[in-house]
Design a protein that fits this description.
about 210 residues; DHBP synthase; alpha/beta; eleven-stranded mixed β-sheet; 6 helices; 11 strands
Length: about 210
């Protein structure tokens, strides 16, 4: 049975978030709100938790996972970014954009793309998720909360609790989220490539 924490979307209770972060430290998988939809998250360095996250989501090791970062200061530790790429990322940060980048050696090989050594990276514009990241002190491994057989992300925390109470360790309820995934931009080539159009408007990036 998962823990269920109802928090204020703009002023989340630190006591509850600290409990959620401790569960993540202990190897748990959590459902958390973001500025695009709810996401499944786990500790970056926990192999078993990452495997559980993929199992719940119903994806294999070729599915691109994303690092949720608190801000761009964490970028250089996990991705190789030149000045041109950084300027474009800054235009969409924080916000509902996922950028595909070349992963550094700091990213465990098992969570990057197995053949390309790439990783998704984004800075969410959501106060609850930001507070969780600040308490954790490092990025979270994440994927959009779309369950096997579904076509849209889950955005109702009560529904998430009902469907995932035996699969995740904690649901952080900050109310309903938008029901769109992020816009994905691949920055590993010579020019940016729009991989998926989602909540983020590519025009914000000049694309």
């Amino acid at each position: 049975m998962s823990q269920y924490f109802e928090v204020h979307p703009d002023n989340p209770q630190s006591r509850l978030l600290k409990q959620a972060v401790q569960l993540l430290h202990d190897g748990g998988v959590a459902a958390v709100p973001t500025d695009s939809s709810y996401a499944l998250v786990c500790h970056l360095d926990d192999k078993v938790a990452a495997e559980n996250l993929r199992r719940i989501r119903g994806v294999d090791d070729k599915h691109l996972l994303t690092l949720l970062c608190c801000d761009l200061s964490e970028l250089a530790s996990y991705a190789r970014v030149d000045n041109k790429q950084f300027r474009l990322i800054k235009l969409g940060t924080p916000g509902p954009f996922t950028f595909i980048l070349e992963a550094t050696k700091e990213v465990p090989r098992r969570v990057s793309h197995p053949s390309r050594r790439t990783i998704g990276l984004r800075v969410p514009d959501h106060k609850v998720t930001q507070a969780v990241l600040e308490l954790l002190g490092q990025p979270l491994l994440a994927t959009t909360l779309i369950l096997p057989g579904d076509t849209e992300p889950l955005n109702d925390p009560a529904d998430i609790r009902d469907r995932l109470q035996k699969l995740v360790h904690v649901v952080v309820d900050a109310g309903a989220c938008p029901r769109q995934p992020t816009t994905i931009i691949d920055l590993t080539g010579d020019q940016p490539v729009l991989v998926r159009r989602g909540r983020g408007d590519p025009a914000r990036l000049g694309l």
